[in-house]
# Entry
Amino acid sequence: MPGAVLSKILLVLALCAAAMFARADEIEVREARLAPAEEGLALSADFAFDFNSRLAEAVANGIPLYFAVEFELKRTRWWWFDDKASVKRMQLRLSYHALSRQYRLSTGLLQQSFSTLAEVLSVLRRVRNWTVVDRTALLSEGNYEAAVRMRLDVNLLPKPFQLSAITSRELTLESPWKRFAYQVVTAEPREAKDAKDGREAESR
# Structure
């Protein structure tokens, strides 16, 4: 077989292997959106990923896995540096308790229990109504860029697993930043609106 042909075959095989490898350890951010809420601005996001056998085995053997959901909101300005309006981080802890045969997912004071890994992953893949901008934060009117990502925090794994994560992609799971636009429109003050409505009524 000519050397050039062999080189092309090896290149194609390497690219295919790299593509399969990338899919195995990546989280996909399928959807992310911001919406006004009572406490301020709330984020909802959907992620897509599965556990490989190494991660499933680790959690089944009692090793807790910590996932971080990170959010940023910055105001885009063509004439100056972007202004970072909000930075938030949420940590989720996934664990398995052999005595109760239950998977547990906890964040802050909230804790949920599940019978199977499939059930707990279906909840882990969804973030709902997470307040990322407090209502006390005064956002200027204009265009903003929001970004969100999820990752397995390997720094919180036991030391032997941290070392293993350096050389093996089986213990890494993360998404790229998902960026999307958000526009802030300042509402017209009530007093000004009432005065405007009054003037319009008199002109009729």
In short: The helical segments are 3-24, 53-60, 117-124, 159-167, 190-203. The chain has five helices and nine strands. Residues 4 and 140 are 60 Å apart (CA to CA).
